[in-house]
Amino acid sequence: MMYNRIADALRQQIVSGVLPPGAELPPEGELAVQWKSSRGPVRNALGALRAEGLIETTRGRPSRVLSRKARQAADVYIPFTRWAESFGRKPSARTEALGLRRADAVTAQALNVEPGTLIVDLTRLRMLDGVPTMLERTSFIEHVGRLLFEVDLDTVSITEYLASRGHRFSGVTHEIDAVAANDVDARMLEVELGSPILRLRRTSVDANGTAFEYSDDRYRSDIVRFTVDASGRQADGSHLIQPK
């Protein structure tokens, strides 16, 4: 289809650096003339590139090439491995620590257990194409977390592994903010001490609504950005933006 041909050509120019980050694309009318097309296919091509995170469009201004950050949807949960593979990147992992400890007040509240309850802690570095991208610090209720001692955590998706053992992720709550990289963050993610990184705190529950995982994931802000797709209206017709 015409819009695929236009999108493929523009995508190639962006990926190859012919159109670098910050570059403006020609206006829709100019692209339509160039491709001997109507504006519809051009608009669809630009929409596809926007959905891929390659460009941004603003009403009244030319489309602009974005830096090639990986887009992470904030309103859904997708395992890191599947997320990376969905846009052609190679995921990998390196386990830094796995062990038992007593839950502090914050973790106990998140997991709905008493402070001092035995839990399992995991610290794991996640990479995209070999580049440190996310440092995850995850706590599990004990009987779920003990399953992790039985598998090579550098080669599996924990989400899919736990699902295969009867612990399916039925719902998640996300809280996102920005923090300054501490000593561990800076060393593991290979960023400057105190530099801004994105923190996503996630509580996961099973089909019964029982919390079994609490994670503090820290992403390099120069590699990942969080997005939310939204649409909708109030019953009275007024605007209401809701996550899709």
Question: How would you portray this structure in words?
Answer:
This protein is an alpha+beta fold and 244 residues long. Helices cover 27% and strands 37% of the residues. It is built from 8 helices and 12 strands. The strands form 4 sheets. Strands 4-5-6-9-8-7 form a 6-stranded antiparallel sheet. α2 packs across α3. It is elongated and about 70 Å long.
Give the number of DSSP strands.
12
Write out the strand line-up for the largest beta sheet, numbering strands in chain order.
4-5-6-9-8-7
Ranges where pLDDT stays below 50 over 5 or more residues in a row are none
Which class best fits the helix and strand makeup?
alpha+beta
Count of individual helical segments: 8
Overall residue-averaged pLDDT value: 88
**CA-to-CA gap between the ends?**
27 Å
Question: Quaternary state, please?
Answer: single chain
| Strand percent estimate | 35-45%
**Helix amount:** 25-40%
> If you compute it from the alpha carbons, what radius of gyration comes out, rounded to the nearest whole angstrom?
21 Å
Shape descriptor reads elongated
Order of helices and strands: HHHEEEHEHEEHHEHEEEEE
Biggest sheet overview: 6 strands, antiparallel
